[in-house]
Amino acid sequence: MAELPELERERKKMNQLFVGQRFRAISLLKESWANVSIEQLEQGLVGRQLLYVERRAKGIVFHLDDGRRLLLTVGNGALFHTTTSADTEAGMTDSADSIDAIASVTVQPQLLISFDQGSWNVTGARTLSLQWLSAKEMDDIAKEWGLEPLSRNLNAALFQSRFAKRRTALRTALTNQALIAGISPAIADEICFGAGIMPTVKTETLSSCDWEAIYTSMVQWLQEAIEQPGAPTYAVSGRQGEACSKCRTELSDVLISGKVSVYCSSCQHEHAPEAVCTHG
């Protein structure tokens, strides 16, 4: 799936460029990617006004003026591209965050949505799902997701309480979408690395100090990744065998719930360094 930081940037971009405009057209490369026919999508969407765009977990939700929702989820490799009327008049297209994304303009989009004054498209995604939903249907889906990791209502204490009854590896707990939404295995590895805690540690052994370090690491990593253009930069994920960016120790890997997790044996331990906690 496309990572949370990339989706959050697209959400912000579309809210800045297209809110208040009407949908003029939609095209989908494969009809099987949608839960309704292309004709139903066009009939329901074209002419409707976009109220705002929301990111929920690893999905982008378009809110329409008739109360309906359009939920998009995309897999790894997705490239997003935006064109506005001003870009077209100037013979330009927007930065699409990378050279690959700029090149993707010439590729047939997997999804193309046109508005009054521009368009937004997706290319390169390994998977793509588009759901045309009522407000209730969207709410029913969202009930399966946990709290948003960057929610203003979330703090270290509430974050810790989400895992109170869990007895599992930390990395497995962090990727449980019913507890905290939108955290992938790769991001979980980065969170553990930032907190100085092993991804294999059992959640029931962690102290309040540990949970504070984990929460702080999560917020800091996500905020920095959102501000960084392009795909997220990983310090440990996918870098087994390379030197740790902090101490130069060779990064190790371990299987957790059947998936590879990468860590630094020198920087990460069973508990967080006390220096990272604001209180004991």
From TrEMBL:
GO terms for MF: 8-oxo-7,8-dihydroguanine DNA N-glycosylase activity; damaged DNA binding; DNA-(apurinic or apyrimidinic site) endonuclease activity; lyase activity; zinc ion binding
Protein name per the record: DNA-(apurinic or apyrimidinic site) lyase
Domain of life: Bacteria
Record keyword DNA-binding present: yes
UniProt cross-references to PROSITE patterns, sorted A to Z: FPG_CAT, ZF_FPG_2
Organism annotation: Paenibacillus agilis
Classification via SUPFAM superfamilies: Glucocorticoid receptor-like (DNA-binding domain), N-terminal domain of MutM-like DNA repair proteins, S13-like H2TH domain
Family: Belongs to the FPG family.
Xref: PANTHER family: FORMAMIDOPYRIMIDINE-DNA GLYCOSYLASE
Catalysis: reaction(s): Hydrolysis of DNA containing ring-opened 7-methylguanine residues, releasing 2,6-diamino-4-hydroxy-5-(N-methyl)formamidopyrimidine
FPG-type domain sequence ranges: 235-269
Domain Formamidopyrimidine-DNA glycosylase catalytic: 2-81
Keywords associated with the record: DNA damage, DNA repair, DNA-binding, Glycosidase, Hydrolase, Lyase, Metal-binding, Multifunctional enzyme, Zinc, Zinc-finger
One example of a Gene Ontology biological process annotation: base-excision repair
UniProt xrefs under Pfam families: Fapy_DNA_glyco, H2TH
